[in-house]
Amino acid sequence: MVGGLGTSTRWCPLARALQAAGHQVAIATDPGFAEHVRRVGFEAFAAGLDMPEARRRFIATIPNWDEIAPWDQLWYIHPGLFAGSRIEPMLEDLGRIIPDWRPDLLIHDSAEMAGALAAERAGIPHVEHSFGVLRPDELRRLATNTLALVAERLGVPNPGVGGINGELYLDVCPPGIQRPEIADLPRVQPLRPVGFDDAPDAVLPEWLTPLPARPLVYVTMGTEFNS
Asked: HEC string of 143-190?
């Protein structure tokens, strides 16, 4: 059995491959995203906070948030949101879900940092599923240092962030655009990136129809931080 964490469908190709190999797959994800996971075809457990609430709690800790330049905000978001406000609620729910469902492996995405800690506490293997280019070393170490406080409280090894403490890192980034420091990680498993476009409620926007028949580049900031 395989447990996974995430708030997007980037994990779908791997999850489906695991299903095809005979594994049972379930996803622990934000409460507001759980029903979407079920529509895609997986068992889902609501866990942790929805991103708007996690973001509200995070911003409440930084009174001058609006004064921080957008290009500097990531240095606050990574330790303060993903390794901060999201951690404790997710740990609490995983502490209930894992003993009941009893997965043999927990796969968490690069932004869901409670998963590895919960797996360490439960004594099960865990790996990180990347979602693109490896984050800068300084950023990963900043979040790892934040997690160290939680790991110490739980009495478990600090799994680190982005593979720097030896956690297996599933690398879906094409080698031609990957950071060279990927070679410094002790345990990396390259995966071929596979698109996912068959969600049951997915439709193309109307503005695509009149575009001319020529190459098109679509650039997005994603689903959570594109306001």
From this structure: HHHHHHHHHHHHCCCCCCCCCCCCCEEEECCCHHHCCHHHHHCCCEEE
> 41: domain CATH number?
3.40.50.2000
**Facing residues of 170 across strands?**
129, 189
Q: Is residue 218 part of a domain?
A: no
| 27 within a domain of the structure (yes/no) | yes
The total number of structural domains in the chain stands at 1
Measured CA to CA, the distance from residue 143 to residue 82 in angstroms comes to 8
d(CA 109, CA 101): 19
| CA 172, 190, 145, 137 torsion-angle sign | negative
Question: Does residue 147 belong to any structural domain of this protein?
Answer: yes
**pLDDT, tens digit (0-9, with 9 covering 90-100), for 108-138:** 999 899 999 999 999 999 999 998 899 999 9
How far is residue 84's CA from residue 57's CA, in Å, rounded to a whole number?
10
Domain that holds residue 170: 2-208
pLDDT block averages, 10 residues each, the chain of length 227: 56 90 94 89 93 93 91 90 94 96 94 95 95 92 95 96 96 94 96 76 82 84 64
Q: In 10 A of CB 160, how many CB atoms? A: 23
